[in-house]
Write a structure and sequence with these properties.
Chain A is α+β, with helices and mostly antiparallel strands and 275 residues long. Chain A has 2 domains: 6-45 and 213-268, no CATH class; 48-194, GAF domain (Beta-Lactamase, 2-Layer Sandwich), CATH 3.30.450.40. Chain A has helices at residues 6-12, 25-45, 48-62, 90-93, 103-111, 126-134, 172-206, 214-226, 228-244, 248-265, and strands at 65-74, 79-86, 97-98, 115-117, 141-148, 151-161. In chain A, strands 3-2-1-6-5-4 form a 6-stranded antiparallel β-sheet, sandwiched between helices. The termini of chain A are close together. The relative contact order of chain A is 0.15. Chain B is an alpha/beta fold. Chain B has a single domain, classed as Rossmann fold. Chain B is built from 6 helices and 11 strands. The model of chain B has no long low-confidence stretch (mean pLDDT 85). The chains are: A alpha+beta (275), B alpha/beta (270). At the A-B interface, helix 5, strand 4, strand 5 and helix 7 of A face helix 3 and strand 11 of B.
């Protein structure tokens, strides 16, 4: 539901769109709606990191894997970085970058082909570097691509097994399971990454840069966020998030009510995030 | 399939053929194009066997290929070549490196690699890659038709994912392979009517890896080169086989395997 094209967002916030809202009402309206969307996206997707981690924990338990991690695309050249991880060296992996095509994760990302390697420990290249950094010993690994709308957005990895080495290699059945977990995790990762892009672009606009005209723009944004209408919208988003977390009957009832309201008011609503 | 049936199949081809004779071939005179992450040309199993190494790069928004001396960036291409080499030890290779080069999208890269291999008229092409991007469906279909018309035999790995991937779901103009947990490369399966028709070993396959090493690998990627190896043997004996005849030969051999086997035919291990 929160899938945004990065290019679209960037062009939306590109300098030509940052002209003074007062001078160009149409662009100002579009920009205001985007800011509303950013704030709503942040509110709705905040719990996503927890959800990704929860899914990692339960999938790793299902695959009797000791460590699991999610790597995501970093830039346009095919590099990857660790978004999140569970296991004893998880903290050390956050933010570590994997150059394009390097190692098993790099290959899986660029080829789209899942694979399992039973004896990574013998490798003297990429995983040895990571292991040296973390003090960990990667021995067996299963990596599967994360796809959203046909696009590869990252890699899901399971490393080693619970218990003592030597570890059993990952089986074809576990490869299938990982692919299904990967589908669910990919949706969450995409929502998280989309929200992050929006948040960073919003932050970029609101802080730091002292380009001419931005001071006035920041003032305008401040006023927008202080307005009663904007606060009401955020309250509504929080309420929606609350209902979405309750259960299927609540969600279905909520959807029915919202669709009825939309049908009733037709195009009168100025919100942009429900359609 | 009995020997009589196999003879009947071979009789559809011109020349004089002996059923099963291809099994003693070594792939001599056959060049296999590996579209992948490169090949480690210094690996003991592959030394002096790589006849051409090229690498993709982008120039003016187009993919161009330059001679490459960067080897294998991930180990995967070396692994695939190693599997082919184990079955067809005298086959040679062309390494078309499309993975690991920064700035190349997954589909764009391997489409360009495939086009390069077809233009160079490589008879046998190993494509252990795939894409689920719908925008590549039509261009891949066109390319594979061109390959078929040019007599290039393209063998592609299925993916293990819930979504269909291209080109492995195209049945007519290429040979698609999914892994089984068998270990004998000659005991492959053919499931006529399935989207992915061929099954070959792809679970814990011991093969060449980076830095002269070896790994045990699992994935459809590694089933694909097993079939490529078998085809290399067939092409040594019958160099004029068309892609259609190769597929028919694989079907005949798999039927023979199934009739001779004590255990049931290998089923796809998706």
């Amino acid at each position: 539901m929160l899938y945004f094209e990065r290019g679209l967002i960037k062009s939306f916030v590109s300098s030509k769109n940052l002209t003074m809202p007062e001078q160009e009402n149409h662009k100002g309206d579009r920009f205001r709606r985007m800011i509303e969307t950013i704030d709503v996206a942040n509110l709705l997707t905040e719990p996503l990191t927890n959800s990704i981690n929860n899914l990692l924990v339960s999938s790793a338990a299902d695959l009797t894997s000791r460590e699991a991690s999610v790597l995501v695309r970093d830039g346009d050249r095919g590099d990857l970085r660790f978004l999140t991880a569970i296991g004893e060296v998880a903290e050390m992996l956050y933010g570590v970058r994997v150059p394009a095509g390097k190692g098993i994760a790099g290959f899986v990302f660029s080829s789209g082909q899942p694979m399992a390697v039973a004896d990574v420990g013998e490798e003297s290249s990429f995983y040895a570097e990571i292991d040296k950094k973390t003090g960990y010993s990667t021995q067996t690994i299963l990596a599967t691509p994360l796809r959203h709308s046909g696009e590869i957005i990252g890699v899901l990895e399971y490393v080693n097994r619970t218990g003592m080495p030597p570890f059993e290699p990952f089986s074809p059945e576990e490869m299938d399971k990982a692919a299904f977990y990967g589908e669910a995790i990919a949706s969450l990762v995409n929502a998280y990454e989309s929200a992050k892009v929006l948040r960073e672009l919003g932050d970029e606009v609101l802080s730091g840069d002292q380009k001419e005209g931005l001071i006035e723009l920041r003032e305008w944004l401040g006023n927008l966020r202080d307005s009663a209408e904007h606060r009401e919208m955020m309250d509504l988003a929080i309420l929606l998030r609350e209902i979405a977390g309750r259960g299927k009957p609540e969600r279905e009832m909520c959807r029915g009510v919202l669709e009825a309201i939309l049908g009733f008011s037709d195009s009168k609503s100025e919100t942009s995030f429900l359609g | 399939m009995s020997a009589v049936d196999e003879t009947a199949f071979y009789s559809t081809m011109s020349g004089s053929f002996k059923p099963g004779e291809w099994r003693s071939a070594s792939g001599k005179g056959v060049t296999v194009a590996i579209i992948d992450s490169g090949i480690d040309v210094r690996h003991p199993d592959l030394m002096s066997k790589v006849m051409e190494s090229v690498e993709a790069r982008i120039e003016n928004k187009k993919v161009v290929f330059d001679p490459s001396n960067t080897g294998d960036s991930a180990g995967h291409g070396t692994a695939c070549a190693g599997i082919v080499s184990k079955i067809a030890p005298e086959a040679s290779f062309a390494s078309i490196k499309v993975l690991g080069a920064g700035g190349l999208g997954d589909g764009q890269a391997f489409l360009a690699g495939l086009e390069y291999a077809i233009k160079k008229r490589y008879r046998l092409i190993n494509l252990s890659l795939g894409t689920t991007k719908p925008q590549f469906f039509a261009p891949l279909h066109d390319l594979l038709d061109r390959a078929y018309q040019a007599g290039c035999i393209v063998v592609a790995a299925a993916n293990n994912l819930p979504q269909p991937s291209f080109p492995s779901v195209f049945s007519s103009s290429l040979i698609s392979v999914v892994k089984s947990d068998r270990s004998d490369p000659f005991n492959f399966g053919f499931h006529y009517g399935e989207v992915i028709e061929l099954t070959a070993p792809g679970v814990n396959v011991r093969t060449a890896w980076l830095n002269g090493g070896y790994r045990n690998l699992t994935g459809n990627s590694f089933a694909c080169p097993h079939i490529v190896g078998i085809i290399a043997l067939l092409l040594e004996r019958y160099p004029n086989l068309t892609p259609f005849q190769v597929k028919s030969a694989l079907y005949a051999i798999a039927r023979e395997n199934q009739e001779n086997a004590l255990e049931p035919p290998p089923f796809p291990n998706k």
